[in-house]
Structures are given as C-alpha cells and as structure tokens.
Amino acid sequence: MLAEALDMNPGKMINCIISKSVAMIRQTSNNKEFTATDCITGNIIKCKGDFPVLYAQEPGEDNLLFAGPGLVDLQINGVNGIDFNDTSIDEEGLFNASEYLLSRGITTFFPTVITNSGENIRKILSVIDRACKARPMLDQCIGGIHLEGPFISGADGYRGAHNSRYVTAPDWDLFCSFQKASGNRIRIISLSPEWDNSTEFIRKCSKAGIIVGIAHSMADSHQIRAAVDAGARLSTHLGNSVPLMLPRHPNVIWDQLAEDRLYASIVADGYHLPDSFMRVVLKTKRKKTILVSDTTYFSGMPPGVYETHIGKEVILEEGGRLSMKGQNGLLAGAAKLLIENVEYLLVNKLADLSVAWYMASAGPARLAGYKKLNLTPGDYSDMVVFKIIDGRIVILGVIKQGKVVWRPDE
Predict the structure, then answer these.
(1) What Cα–Cα distance (Å) separates residue 282 from each residue in 8, 95, 121, 277, 394?
(2) Residue (of 233, 293, 343) closest to 110 by Cα position
(3) Are residues 60 and 103 in the same domain?
(4) β-strands 82-83, 106-114: how paired?
(5) Which of 49, 50, 230, 361 has the most other CB atoms within 10 Å of its CB?
(6) Phi/psi of residue 19, nearest 5 degrees
(7) pLDDT at 63
(8) Hey, how many other C-beta atoms are within 10 angstroms of the C-beta on 187?
(9) Cα 3 from chain centroid?
(10) Residue numbers of the domain that contains 137
C-alpha cells in the first residue's frame, strides 16, 4: 500500500484508511489487547499495552485509533533545554532528553554533534558513550551518533551556523579519534565533498559502515558524482545551508536531486523549506525522502527571548519559529520535533499519513540499518498509538522494545 500511496494525490490515502476500520479494545487476563489501523499499511492489527486512556471506540474519523512504528530522528541537536553540543552535557541530561522524546513518539534518535574543536567533540562523544553504557534504556533509544562537521564548507552561506574557526578538510586520523571517543557509536557523518581528499575519506567511511551525507557544501557536479560513487548515500537537510542566491543550473541542489542513489532528508517545520520545494523532493526521491527535525534545545521550551551559550540572542515564537534577534528574522535553527514535521505534511496536504509516517520512522530506520527496530508491519517492537484530532497527532501510548514506556497521566 505504501508504494501505491507514493503515487497517490495528497488526501486520498488518509480517507482510504479511515474508511477501513473502527478500533476496539477489550480486557484480557494480563493486559489490554486492542486493534488499531496500521498507519503505514492500512491493515488492521492487534496490539497489546496497558493504556488506561483507551476505551471502546465509536465509529467516526475522530475516534479512529492508529498504530505505527516509533519515530526515528536521524538529526537532532537537543531538546527541551538540553543541548547535545554543550560540553557540560551529562548522563542525566541525555536520559531526560530521551524520556521527553519518547513522550512525543520519538523512540530512536541520533544525537547530532556539530563542528567544534577536536577536544570538545571528543568530550561530548565520550559523555554520550558513557551515558549509553550506564543507562540501558538510553542505549536502546540512541540508534547512533550523527557527526555534522567539521569537514564541511568554510564558505559563508554554505557553512550555516557552524564556527568557521573549526572547519577543516576531511582527516581520517581525526575522525578515528572521534569514533574511538564515541565507543564506535558514530553512524552518520555529514560533510562537503568539495575538499581534495573527500573521495578517499568517503570511501573509507563507507567501508567502515558509516553513512555519509552531503551537507553545508558548495561542491560542483563532478565532486558530487564522485562522492556518490565513493559511497555517499544521503543529502542532509537538502535545500538548507546554501546561499540565498545560487547559479540557475547546475547547482548543488539540482545535482543532488538528480542523483537517484541519494536519500534526501528534509526539515518540514514550515519555516526551513517552502511547500513547493518539498513537493519536488517528494516527487523526485519518493521512498528515499525522509524527515529529520534538526531541532535545537529550544524545542519544548516556552516562547520568549533566549541567550544561547555562544552569546547570541534568539527569539522563539509561539508557532515554533526560531530566529536571531535583531537580524531581520534570520532563522536560528529549528524548534519543532519530528512528530510536528509529520503534522505539517498532513495539515498542508503534502503527504498522506502512510507516506508521512513512513518518512519519519521506517524510512530513516532502513537508511540507518537500525536492526534493533522491528519493521514488520503489525508487529513493531517500537510502537506509537495515537489519534488524529483537528489535524493534531494525539499520542495515547508509546512502546519501546515491546514495553510500555509512556502513556498520558491517568
């Protein structure tokens, strides 16, 4: 059904699913068993979980119960006041972040460590490793680490918010020192293939099982093709971290869109990309389009003016827009979680539920080769049970590795 949904016009798939079932719940001797609509396949599946908020459902769209695999965020910089790039991050902060993400349906996440000094990067990576070893649940939730930089473009407009002081050419020995500090948890690295030694570096990463993403890059057509030939598999937050003005063609966006071997991750928060661009990516990449939040630690915090740990002030608006204070609304990063990206696609009819949820769960999990997540339809070891009410996804329960890990207060 997913393959068919990717060819459907927006709006058809959700109507198809809604017409097929009404979820029911009954009490068993040990726990509660209920049926729900698998939000990816549209099939009726049996689920088990002690969720007191569930009740016998009456026919109607508002009461339709859905279940789907846990959401997988391959790029997240922090959440709810916890910054994964602050060298003061500790085990407790990471655990609290994982609990918060579980409550929002994100059962697997990849803490994203960006350009910094080698010493600071290693310090942060080692903290993540120690925290995972100390907390089994955290180890289950962290699917790997995403290293974004320092091997990116140093040019203004392409570099984004990364500190130019620490940008450097790909260095295999330096990367190996990062990987050692992480306990071999780095699973994704985003870089620019514009450097002279990029191709060989990418080839080594690919051989080591590291997913290479192209990002913050002013690489030309030849360099992008060489990167993909060497093993690059992902366009990281495609459409962002490029100057406002690009050559008509070719350019770094067109070249990546045209490369069928690349997945494309996009930030669908309503601020980073226009709807028209996301439609083009969906039509071009189809099942290789995945969602990432790329959110910062401001996600989950109340609106207001905040001072960042690097000394700059940002404004977090009611709708989740995050911008630099006094810089004409220039974005300061993302502040919406992955599930809010799914909602944006649904509300604006950019994708149906089947496609949008796949882009935020099974799609990224398959790209990452995350084997801990059971992706068998109807038998997900990580699961989110939810309703859709007035365009909002209302989570009623979250299961991780077959165990209930979150439910609303009774």
Answers:
(1) 12, 34, 34, 9, 25
(2) 293
(3) no
(4) unpaired
(5) 361
(6) -75, -10
(7) 61
(8) 20
(9) 22
(10) 75-368
Round the average pLDDT of the chain to a whole number and report it: 87
Q: How far is CA 250 from CA 236, 256, 270, 280, 365, in A?
A: 19, 10, 26, 16, 31
User: Is the domain of 152 the same as that of 214?
Assistant: yes
Domain shared by 113 and 247, yes or no: yes
What are the tens digits of pLDDT across the range 251-304?
999 999 999 999 999 999 999 999 999 999 999 999 999 999 999 999 999 999
| Each residue's pLDDT tens digit, 45-72 | 888 887 776 654 554 455 689 999 999 9
Secondary structure letter of residue 2 according to DSSP: H
Domain CATH for 236: 3.20.20.140
What is the b/e burial string over 99-137, where b = at least 16 CB atoms within 10 angstroms of the residue's CB?
ebbbbbbbbbbbbbbbbbeeeebbebbebbbebbeebeb
Query: What 8-state DSSP symbol labels residue 161?
Result: T
- 30 and 177 belong to one structural domain: no
Q: In what order do the strands lie in the sheet with 313-316?
A: 304-307, 313-316, 322-324
pLDDT in tens, 81-134: 999 999 999 999 999 999 999 999 999 999 999 999 999 999 999 999 999 999
Q: Reduce the DSSP state of residue 132 to 3 states and report it.
A: helix
Distant-in-sequence, close-in-space partners of 349: CB < 8 Å, separation ≥ 6: 10, 11
Tokens of 187: 């699973």
Nearest-angstrom CA–CA distance, 296 and 314: 12
Answer yes or no: do 383 and 359 share one domain.
Answer: no
Q: Answer whether 256's CB lies under 8 Å from 238's CB.
A: yes
Tokens of 344: 């944006």
Which tokens sit at 365? 């999990």
For the stretch 363-387, pLDDT in tens is 999 999 876 556 666 668 899 999 9
- Mark whether 326 and 392 lie in a shared domain: no
Q: CA-CA distance, 74 to 141, in Å (whole number)?
A: 12
If asked whether residues 241 and 328 sit together in one domain, one would say: yes
> What is the pTM for the complete model shown?
0.90
Whether the CB-CB separation of 305 and 322 falls below 8 Å is answered with no
Do 209 and 136 lie in a common domain? yes
Cβ-proximal residues to 173 (8 Å cutoff; 6+ apart), any chain: none
In the chain, the number of structural domains is 2
Which DSSP helix (H) or strand (E) runs through 319? none
